[in-house]
Design brief:
The protein has 459 residues and is an alpha/beta fold. 49% of the residues lie in helices and 12% in strands. It has a seven-stranded mixed β-sheet with strand order 1-6-5-4-7-8-11, sandwiched between helices. A two-stranded antiparallel sheet has the order 2-3. Strands 9-10 form a two-stranded antiparallel sheet. Helix 6 packs antiparallel against helix 7 and helix 11 packs parallel to helix 14. The longest helix is centred in the middle third of the chain and has 20 residues. The radius of gyration is 22 Å and the shape is globular.
């Protein structure tokens, strides 16, 4: 639950404002005070989430300090309904076990890396050409292509039978469950007790070569039971966070998963962490991304120049100032709201904090036509028109397999934490072109939506 405010209400806005201020205060008290005084958090949150990245660039330690302070604030503020901390609740060993089951697949394990793309199954040279094309168009970073090439060259890495891949959010379209099962691995899946969801997941598992061990459970109400159940499994756990919930529930859910991750990590120090970052967030990006973006901006069409002029600079503003190194790619979308931003930032903070002493797979995922995104009419229309601004929107089958490949690489070739947290986040990013588009995304979103509306209505 969110903590109670002075008037007795449980406010997600008050939590978000307080957590962001606490995180900023670790490095910049002035920025923290600005966040704490923000009068309209639901409209004004964007600049404070950007500040978390800008302030984090001041030194190699700043981002780690922000992450630690942000996580501590969430830990100290979030409560259970009976007013216990989440850490206290997780030590409750009397919780009723969740409803569980197991499915052994009957298929043949995939022993060659393939990637579904527009109805084809890319492998070998076709896969390499697709990676080269994505790099050339700025859809993914070169480091992402290198990772995929290395996994393709080592197909034995795909056998994850020595790992226990936990997928919190087993039915998530962006999760690695189908890929890992297809490679013959074991997936420990957790998701809500929804028959339709589990029927779909069950069907995937039956056709695969892997083994699914599932738990039908609600992490908001059965967190201690899920924790005990996960810890009962032998083998090295890879705790993957692929959960989603609409509105304020997403912030609560991310806080619950974070408490679970910390708890399992304390009990089983060899636990690995897997997180996916949304591309519609703020990131520090390398100079090469800035250079491509600014070149495209200076070479923009006459129509684009006129649009910027007649709108007084409100539309089609440049993505970065010339020569920024690193650049700050601000792709936050106001319509996704502060609860979504906070939920995703909690996940990023956990990855940052864990990277120094754990194996962490953290990947920036591409814009993807998932059900949750396409249910938002504005985003659905904007995604349909995104190609006009050098942004590629992925189909779920392509995106989730690509992200699973990045997970495999980090498990087989773990990268130690670098000196800079922002550079670790940018490694192997598959942002769909948002980092290299010529325009600041929010200043192009409306135009993309207008151009894409007819196509969105036909879908």
């Amino acid at each position: 639950m969110f903590p109670r405010s002075a008037d007795g209400r449980r406010s997600s806005a008050e939590l978000g404002r307080a957590v962001v201020a606490d995180a900023l205060r670790a490095v910049d008290p002035t920025a923290a005070d600005a966040a704490a005084r923000e009068p309209d958090w639901r409209r004004g949150y964007l600049r404070h989430f950007r500040a978390l990245i800008e302030v984090g660039l001041r030194s190699d330690q700043a981002a780690y300090e922000i992450a630690a302070a942000g996580l501590a604030s969430v830990r100290d503020r979030m409560r259970t309904a009976d007013d216990r901390s989440l850490a206290e609740a997780l030590e409750d060993d009397g919780a009723r076990p969740p409803e569980t089951f197991a499915v052994q697949g009957t298929g043949t394990a995939e022993r060659e890396l393939t990637l579904p793309f527009h109805g084809e199954l890319l492998r070998g040279d076709a896969l390499k050409r697709r990676l080269d094309d994505w790099v050339g168009r700025g859809t993914i970073e070169e480091s992402c292509a290198q990772v995929v090439r290395e996994v393709a060259a080592n197909p034995d890495w795909l056998d994850l039978s020595d790992q226990r891949i936990v997928v919190l959010g087993a039915g998530a379209e962006m999760g690695p469950l189908p890929a890992v099962l297809g490679w013959g691995g074991t997936v420990i899946g957790v998701d809500l007790p929804r028959p339709q969801l589990w029927a779909r997941v069950h069907a995937v598992a039956e056709k695969s070569a892997g083994r699914l061990i599932g738990a039908r459970a609600d992490l908001l109400t059965e967190l201690p039971a899920v924790a005990q159940w996960l810890l009962s499994h032998e083998g090295r756990l890879v705790l993957g966070d692929y959960v989603y919930a609409p509105g304020a529930a997403y912030a609560r859910l991310s806080a619950a998963v974070d408490a679970l991750t910390a708890h399992v990590g304390r009990k089983r120090p060899d636990t690995a962490i897997a997180k996916l970052a949304t591309p519609t967030d703020v990131f520090a990006v390398p100079a090469a991304a800035v250079a491509m973006s600014t070149t495209r901006y200076h070479e923009r069409s006459r129509r684009a120049r006129l649009t910027k002029t007649v709108t007084g600079g409100r539309l089609l503003r440049p993505n970065y100032p010339d020569g920024a190194d690193p650049g700050v790619a601000d792709s936050l979308v106001r319509q996704q709201g502060p609860n979504y931003a906070l939920a995703k930032r909690i996940q990023r903070w956990r990855a940052t904090a864990g990277r120094r002493d754990s194996v962490v797979s953290f990947s920036v995922a591409p814009p993807t036509r998932t059900r949750s995104v396409m249910s938002n009419r504005l985003l659905a229309a904007a995604y349909a028109g995104a190609h006009l601004f050098d942004v590629e929107v992925f189909e779920p089958a392509t995106a989730n397999k690509l992200m699973a490949v990045l997970l495999v690489h980090q498990l087989r070739r773990p990268r130690p934490a670098g000196t800079s947290a922002w550079a670790d986040e940018a490694h192997a990013a598959a942002h769909g072109g948002l980092w290299r588009t010529p325009y600041q995304p929010r200043t192009a979103l409306g135009l993309a939506a207008v151009r894409g509306l007819p196509a969105a209505l036909r879908r």
